[in-house]
Amino acid sequence: MIKIENLSVAFDGAEVVKNVNLEIADGEILGVVGESGSGKSVTALTLMGLVSKEAAVTSGRIFYDDVVLASAGRPRDMALYRAYQGSRMSMVFQEPMTSLNPTKRVGGQVEEMLRLHASDLTGEQRKERVLETFLKVGLKDAKRVYDSYPHQLSGGMRQRAMIAMAVILHPGLVVADEPTTALDVSVQNQIIALLREINKEQKNSMLFITHDLNLARRLCHRVAVMKDGRVVESGNVEEIFESPKEAYTKRLIEAVPSRIKKEEKAKQRNVTAEGVKAEENILEVKDLNVFYKEGSNSLFSGKKKKPVVSEASFIMKRGETLGLVGESGCGKTSLSKAILGINKDIEGSVIHYSTRPQMIFQDPYSSLNPSKTIGWLLQEPLRVQSLADKTKAMTDKDREAAAYDMLHRVGMEDKYFYRRPSQLSGGQRQRISIGQALITRPGFVIADEPVSALDVTIQAQIMELMRSFQEEMKLSFLFISHDINVVYQMSDRIMVMKEGRIVEIGATKEVFDNPKEEYTRQLLREA
Amino acid sequence: MKYLAKKIITLIMTLFLVSVAAFVAFQIIPGDVVTSILGTEATPEREEQLREELGLNDPPVKRYVSWVGDVLKGDLGVSYRYSKNMNEMMPVTELIGDKLPVTLWLAAIAVILIIVAAIPLGVFWAKSKSHAMDAFMGVFTQAAMAIPSFFLGIIVTYLFGIVFKVFAPGGYVSYQDNFPGFLGYLFFPALSVAIPKIAMTARFLRNSMLTEMKADYVRTAYSKGCSDRRVMYGHVLRNAMMPVITFLGMIIAEIVAGSIVVEQVFGLPGIGRLLISSISTRDFPVVEILILYITFVVIFVYFLVDILYRVIDPRISNR
User: Fold this and answer.
1) Neighbour count for residue A342 (Cβ, 10 Å)
2) Nearest CA to CA, how far is B235 from chain A (Å)?
């Protein structure tokens, strides 16, 4: 049994985990749910003895069965931890690509567990055991995986290999920190099923950390909700979902996009499969093929062309949101780049009836220039516009006024004007990205996973903001997401892509109630 | 195979361009070999005669083409300036062949010193947890990097040659006579070449390791129960070496191509000194071949770096 008793952890005197009490019984899966900054990962890393050296345990104790692993005021006992890490407790991380050593073969990395903790095995036996475990975690081509480097495997396979590494020694505790967040929906489900299966078979305790309440509900026996370093509520999964006691838990549950809520505030719009009725076209895409050049940029060998989008045809109306869904690698991003003219290697036609289409990107952390102020960033599209079109030139004063205006409209105060992106939260940055995209008053905007990097409560705010802009400016959004529920909430129509082809397009409700394609049905089932 | 063919074609094209550039440069700089052989007092008739003999009166393009033709046939020509004896001209091959081993061995010893010293030093520095050690290493490497190699050469000569008397300054031992003695003499010039580069490489490796230490896979390694040592040598070092190898490649190319100063200070008859004297006497055939040689070495070292990269990082060959 694992017991975390009154644990507080501080970085440079600032407590990020405050008096946390958690218990995980043998064979139990405990979910810790919270948004970024809630202290859930620090709690897990402290339990594992992996939290960075600057962190100090300021109160409480951590028990593994009867052994005290960590205790306030005692320096971290690395030797003790090393006897537990790997063999008695192990961890699965969020990003399987970076969590595996890129220059070592996967088999060797898993085998290192045995090398470290099962030194009585011969090399032959070790390899056999690794291959066996690979098969158990669903890596059918075990021999190939054993000899592969991480980059030669798919995301799902890498995460399976990580799980194989974590469970090969049948540890009493497995900590999984957002193990499915970096993966496609269908793979997500497989990984959750795998974790459940392992829990049944090996009877280990599991600590499952996630921001996604639905995932926790599907996997965990009990759930603890964390906010600002504290556990605000904990208990049986169904109880928490059915009758949350705390206001924050209620908010979290409500913020999760779901289909029912849309019905409540359903847009009173007349949508057909061709789009919002009685509106003019804003975009026409016809027989579009997009290619991707393969091979090195050599003088001598010709480049191979690989089609990534084939025969895409659709139209978009003014003021509508078209949701684009599909798994990673299906051509969503290539299609949007072709529409914006960033990718020029295309066949077919793209006709815009609006000027200056814009884009909102997924990762607000890397898509804003970190060395500029927010005010400068907001003005930049206007500056570029006036360079391209002299009739739209503005004075410095007007431009600044427009930037302040936009800052207010995305819901932020004056004081942010002279701050830099690093001083803002993820949600604030995404507000700025939206402001940047809309300040030139475009008619058409592509939003590429605009809320995927954000916490659920922030997600809801950003989606609301986008909707209000849409109504006001009669914007058309091409809204790309892998999250079916988000798309459902935002979109008038939905377009499903698979392997570079548009397999289905239709009014949102129509597609959800009555999917025509098997692939669409599969996507909906998984969500 | 395709990769190799590509590399070879690039090499040939580069050598061609460099040879043209060197030839053009020789046309542009004032003064010619005739004045340098005969002196300023010679009669115009004598000068004209020598020019005709050396073929300097042909149009430049014709001279370049015939030179390239000879080189391709394996005839690197004869030096304008040096001669074997009164009656025989000095072939460039022989002239360079004599001096090449000196420079190559000097560079080889320096490179070995750099690798042997910088890698443990960089790892040690990255591992050092005390602030005092960190600060000391910072100052120490900074100082070593700042000292110019000719001055370092003087210090090394004074310290090891005059104070400790480990070698005899100026007492160069030819490799034909006594090979171990030759290597022993080269050790100290190589040391003065190597010291600043050791400091740079160690610093670079340390920074690279500290960056790698923050990578996710390091946390994974710790979660398996790896010791600090195992994480360092088993996981981090190899990944941290990637940028260091590029850096080493640049340094090696620099050493091979830039041995001039140290050869001067230690009185080594290497190609660096030959290059300087040949340029000042406008000894075109010698200079041209030396420049091509240096170009070749630099490209070859980069080629090796590329190969090494592919060996260390499996992701590269797939790109």
Assistant:
1) 11
2) 7
Question: B271 lies in which domain range?
Answer: 97-318
Q: CATH number of the domain at B188, please.
A: 1.10.3720.10
Residue B168 pLDDT > 80: no
Pair of tokens at residue A110: 């898993």
> What pLDDT does residue B73 have?
84
Q: What is the ipTM of this complex?
A: 0.76
CA-CA distance, A518 to B179, in Å (whole number)? 79
Nearest to B280 by CA among B37, B77, B78: B37
Q: Is A115 on the interface with B (CB under 8 A)?
A: no
Q: Which residues of B155-174 are buried (b: 16+ CB within 10 A; e: fewer)?
A: ebbeebbeeeeebebeebbe
Cα–Cα separations (whole angstroms), residue A457 to A248, A250, A260, A261: 10, 11, 17, 15
The residue ranking higher by pLDDT, A456 or A24, is A24
As a whole number of angstroms, the distance between CA B294 and CA B182 comes to 23
Q: Specify which residues A420 forms β-bridges with.
A: none
In a domain, B132, yes or no: yes
- Side-chain-side CA neighbours of residue B143 (13 Å): 6
Contact A86 B217 (CB under 8 A): no
**Rounded to a whole number, what is the largest CA-CA distance in chain A?**
79
Q: Cβ A85–B222 below 8 Å, yes or no?
A: yes
Instruction: Give a yes or no: residue B44 inside a domain.
Output: no
The tally of domains found in chain B comes to 1
Q: Which of B225, B235, B312 sits opposite A85 (nearest CB)?
A: B225
Q: Which of A478, A427, A468, A474 is nearest to A448 (CA)?
A: A478
B3 part of a folded domain: no
**CB of A151 less than 8 A from some CB of B:** yes
CB atoms under 10 Å from CB of A439, counted, come to 24
Given B224, B234, B239, which is nearest A85 (Cβ)? Answer: B224
Its pTM stands at 0.77
Q: What is the DSSP letter of B214?
A: T
Calpha distance A237→A217 (Å, rounded): 6
The HSE-up count of residue A332 (CA atoms within 13 Å, CB side) is 25
B-proximal residues of A, 65-84, CB under 8 Å: 81-84
Q: How far is A74 from chain B (nearest CA, A)?
A: 20
Which residues of B are less than 8 Å from A113 in CB distance? 224
Beta strands across the sheet bearing A321-325:
A358-360, A444-448, A476-480, A321-325, A493-498, A501-507
Mean pLDDT of all residues in A334-361: 87
In a domain, B88, yes or no: no
> Which residue matches tokens 């062309």?
A305
Q: Which residues 350-409 of A have a C-beta within 8 angstroms of B?
A: none
- What lies within 8 Å, CB to CB, of A365 at 6+ separation is A421, A426, A429, A453
Between CA A478 and CA A340 the distance in angstroms is: 11
- Look at residues B298, B289, B302 and name the one whose alpha carbon lies nearest to residue B22: B289
Which residue in chain B is spatially nearest to A300 when comparing CA positions?
B6
Nearest residue on chain A to B237, alpha-carbon basis = A103
* Pairing of β A476-480 and β A275-276: unpaired
Q: How far is CA B86 from CA A357, B82, B83, in A?
A: 82, 10, 7
Q: In this predicted model, what pLDDT tens digit does every residue of A96-152 receive, in sequence order?
A: 889 999 999 999 999 999 999 988 999 999 999 999 999 999 999 999 999 999 988
